[in-house]
Design goal:
Elements: H1 6-16, E1 19-23, E2 28-39, E3 42-49, H2 51-54, E4 58-65, E5 70-77, E6 80-88, E7 92-107, E8 115-120, E9 147-152, E10 160-173, E11 176-181, E12 193-198, E13 203-218, E14 221-233, H3 234-243, H4 256-267
Antiparallel strand pairs: 1-2, 1-6, 2-3, 3-8, 4-5, 6-7, 7-8, 9-10, 9-12, 10-11, 11-14, 12-13, 13-14
Length: 275
């Protein structure tokens, strides 16, 4: 059996293996492991995906509030399943295993952001593979014609890879910036990853989330234009992580404790004015 080249091994380890399949009770898509570290005897593993992949797990129901003495809207977040894959000889899928995960942050698709962050419930075992996050200080070095790779669970399959280039960087959808890639993507790629080679760091880096594809109306039907896929660019992902106090995922100088403290302060209930 021929051995895989160093380049092929690197592509698998840095782009293919961090890809997971995300499933809810009625839907599914892709996700990318972006953080997995042990901290104070507890492992923190996080997966980024699209909100529309897990939207059916986000519900709002009327619940009785014993403090306010009335029914109020309560957010109910169902369990999500993250499926990791096993490989043989790098390219051959030989099985998978699913673990439960919680939705810890999200921005709804209707608002244009279409982003969700999951925390895997397994707090004992680190993920074997984690994507390399692109550094924002190098954002101006990304250009149209840069080669990129898209990886995701296309049409529900185990991870599928494609390549292309950045084809447009100034699209706006619902007032939010999207970049376009010619790397073919299709339904199921949502929530996965777009990668770009960093020649300085000599590694493949996560630069976005495949989220939409172009549709061409054809009479009473429509055709998917798979080589015109939109993805959420890395600067928006960083902004969303910061807004939700998860900066430690991309910035090692920020502690998990500081982020947890900031989230608790934001979640503290405000006292209603006495009548």
């Amino acid at each position: 059996m021929a051995k895989a080249s160093k380049e092929i091994i690197q592509k698998h380890e840095q782009m293919f293996y961090p890809t997971v399949r995300v499933r809810t009770k009625r839907a599914g898509g892709s996700g990318t492991v972006v953080y997995s570290e042990k901290h104070k005897d507890e492992v923190y593993t996080y997966v980024i995906t699209n909100h529309h992949v897990v939207a059916d797990s986000v519900k709002v129901e009327k619940k009785w509030d014993s403090v306010l003495k009335r029914k109020v809207d309560k957010e109910i977040l169902d369990t999500v399943f993250v499926e990791f894959f096993r490989y043989n000889n790098y390219s051959h899928t030989v099985g998978s295993f699913a673990v439960e995960a919680d939705i810890v942050a999200y921005s709804e698709v209707d608002g244009g952001q279409d982003w969700a962050l999951l925390r895997v419930r397994d707090k004992e075992n680190k993920a074997d593979w984690v994507a390399n996050m692109f550094q924002l200080k190098e954002l101006e070095n990304i250009h149209i014609f840069d080669k990129v790779y898209a990886v995701g669970a296309s049409l529900g399959h185990p991870p599928v890879a494609s390549d292309g280039h950045i084809s447009y960087m100034d699209d706006e959808i619902d007032h939010y910036k999207y970049w376009m890639s010619s790397a073919p993507t299709i339904f199921g790629n949502s929530g996965g990853a777009v990668y770009r080679w960093n020649d300085d760091g000599k590694q493949y880096e996560y630069i976005g989330i495949p989220s939409r594809i172009s549709i061409q109306p054809m009479g009473f039907s429509a055709d998917a234009i798979t080589h015109m896929g939109y993805f959420i660019p890395i600067d928006r992902i960083y902004n969303l992580l910061e807004e939700n106090d998860y900066q430690f995922i991309y910035d090692s100088s920020v502690s998990i404790e500081d982020c947890e403290k900031a989230r608790k302060e934001k979640q503290a209930p405000e006292k209603e004015d006495e009548e």
